[in-house]
């Protein structure tokens, strides 16, 4: 008799553990959906803000930079590249724009142009004393150069 009771108790504990695990998985999935929804709403808000700035001044470096970064996050590399290049035409010393442009070019699989962008950006960033951005570009350049197709 004791063994049947033990088996039933263990089966009940296993069922509770399974139900707890499933509940935890559902809660994690819901939290993930909520985070994605919030991130999407934030990207949309920022995109609208940058677009409003660019309606007023299409050559605004910060507006083009910000929109370019958002478009890169969305995987819209060609559009991102156009905005980031415009930011650099407006402000050729905008070191963060070199980094963002290089990432967009990498996303578009234009690795040679990305490498050249990083090289130029490293010079600009170092000249401005923006060592953090220069170091990030140096790391990305080193990664590109270590790839067989680069």
Plain-language structure description:
The chain is mostly helical and 150 residues long. Helix content is 86%, strand content 0%. The protein has 2 domains: 1-56; 57-150, Serine Threonine Protein Phosphatase 5, Tetratricopeptide repeat (Alpha Horseshoe), CATH 1.25.40.10. The chain has helices at 2-56, 61-73, 77-90, 95-107, 111-128, 131-146. Helix 1 packs antiparallel against helix 2 (61-73), helix 2 (61-73) runs parallel beside helix 4 and helix 4 (95-107) packs antiparallel against helix 5 (111-128). The radius of gyration is 25 Å and the shape is elongated.
Topology (elements, then pairings):
Layout lengths: L1 H55 L4 H13 L3 H14 L4 H13 L3 H18 L2 H16 L4
